[in-house]
Design a protein that fits this description.
By secondary structure, the protein is α/β, with parallel strands linked by helices. The strands form five sheets. The chain has a five-stranded parallel sheet with strand order 2-1-3-4-5, sandwiched between helices. A five-stranded parallel sheet has the order 9-10-13-8-14. A two-stranded antiparallel sheet has the order 6-7. The protein starts with a strand and ends with a helix.
């Protein structure tokens, strides 16, 4: 199968030369003359390699192409073309995840060598990706995050791809989805892992204290500042600073944060000395920061500085197949914590958990399992230990159907097998209802088209 390349450059003559080169080398080739065309092409196709000019209409257009390519497919290799052969330019592109850069003018031999090396790394990455999936499917755990659904595997793959780079990362998702765990995983898989991971909840600190918390203060800077204090920027030096709920920062603090990121230095409150820092910023928000930016509540220049790579953590209702593994994980945790050995969760209770939407996501499931562990009088979690808002769907469903709940077999069962059976039945029913239309079936099941394709392949459904 031919490899697929996208060439992005605003010079028509160079695009034509590169297109001819790649076709002669046996590649399928698309071209784009602008950032907008490149983003549209990347959204519509899966490329093995993207070759982009670094500077087009805007100086950072090439970096935006790089970001879009990695966001769409973490395993796409990106080579940056530049006529500005400075060490800093190369470092920035590679820091954001480019494989390498090539200086204009170039000869075909060097280009060929670089392309082959980039695609060889893609093959190595494919091996790592396969190993990652096999490991997660065997243990259901990745850097402390539990799950093996397609939705969460996509998050793991993106973490694995961008963690070794130094690009800033923005993590988006609802409350309780585990955004801090994702930030910690990015740090643990990065070259900075031997240095501090420093989290701060921007929503939990009063506005008048946030600057001091981030940058520290000198003695006498304000009433109560009886001694000089380091801020979290200094604490995180050479490591990772995680700004949770960054959208809650007041506008004046957004400006100071932007300046410190641009200058790679800051001043303590009340101080005159510039202190250099080397940190990676990972931030998170449950808000739609793009809308906040458009409506003027979040600085656009700070947004683009932080949003180099974006990771979306799916809500638990979009990865229900992870509920059994998460529930087992929390059951073991709280059995030990409360000194109550719990053997398992019975079938009726598990059906209730699988039917519930979990508006509070994984955090709600965790709290629910702790409550159930405390309330349960036997060594098996039963539906009676779950709150009524969780059990009502199963109870009402059984009453409406006029049938009793299926009893749990005395000899036990293989939960994964039962879950696979249930998943296969729902897939077949959805396909039957939509006349075999996979897109419509995916909508009925509230999953992505990519996810339904994977599941159909898994169950051997044509």
């Amino acid at each position: 199968m031919k490899e697929y390349v996208l060439v992005v450059d605003d010079e028509q003559s160079l695009r034509q030369v590169l297109e001819l080169f790649f076709r002669k080398e046996g590649f399928e080739v698309d071209t784009a003359s602008s950032l907008a065309e490149a983003e549209a092409a990347i959204a519509a196709n899966a490329y093995d390699l993207v070759l982009t000019d670094l500077r087009m209409a805007q100086p950072d257009d090439g970096l935006k192409v790089l970001r879009a390519a990695v966001q769409k497919n973490p395993w796409t290799q990106v080579i940056v073309l530049t006529a500005y052969a400075t060490v800093e330019t190369a470092k920035e592109a590679i820091r954001y995840g480019a494989y390498d850069y090539l200086t204009k003018p170039f000869d075909n031999a060097n280009l060929r060598k670089l392309v082959r090396a980039a695609l060889a790394r893609k093959e190595d990455d494919a091996g790592r990706r396969k190993a990652l999936r096999e490991s997660v499917r065997g243990t259901s755990v990745y850097e402390g995050i539990v799950g093996r659904s397609e939705a969460i595997l996509g998050v793991f793959e993106l973490i694995d791809r961008v963690a070794p780079t130094d690009a800033n990362v923005m993590i988006l998702g609802e409350s309780g989805t585990g955004k801090e765990l994702v930030a910690a995983a990015l740090h643990a898989r990065s070259p900075r892992k031997e240095f501090p991971f420093v989290p701060i909840n921007c929503a939990a600190i009063p506005e008048n204290l946030i600057e001091s918390e981030l940058f520290g203060h000198v003695r006498g800077a304000f009433t109560g500042a009886v001694q000089t204090k380091k801020g979290l920027f200094e604490t995180a030096h050479r490591g990772t600073l995680f700004l949770d709920e960054v959208g809650e920062l007041p506008q004046p603090m957004q400006s100071k944060l932007l300046r410190s990121l641009q200058e790679r230095s800051f001043r303590r409150v009340g101080g005159n000395e510039d202190i250099s820092i080397d940190i990676r910023i990972v931030c998170a928000s449950k808000r739609d920061l793009h809308r906040e930016m458009v409506e003027g509540r979040f600085r656009d220049d700070l947004y683009f500085r932080l949003n180099v790579i974006q990771v979306f953590v799916p809500p638990l209702r979009d990865r229900r197949e992870d509920i059994p593994a998460l529930a087992a994980h929390f059951l073991a945790k709280f059995s030990e914590k409360h000194g109550k050995p719990m053997a398992r969760i019975d079938g009726e209770a598990m059906r209730a958990l699988l039917a519930y939407d979990f508006p509070g996501n994984v955090r709600e499931l965790e709290n629910l399992l702790e409550r159930a562990t405390i309330m349960e009088t036997k060594n098996v979690i039963s539906v009676g230990s779950l709150p009524p808002n969780v059990t009502k769907f199963v109870t009402l469903g059984a009453a409406a159907a006029g049938e009793n709940q299926e009893s749990f077999p005395e000899e036990g069962l293989f939960l994964d097998t039962e879950m696979d059976r249930l998943e296969k039945n729902h897939l077949l029913n959805a396909l039957e209802k939509t006349g075999g239309n996979r897109t419509e079936a995916a909508k009925l099941l509230n999953i992505s088209l990519r996810s339904i394709r994977y599941r159909l392949q898994k169950h051997g459904i044509e």
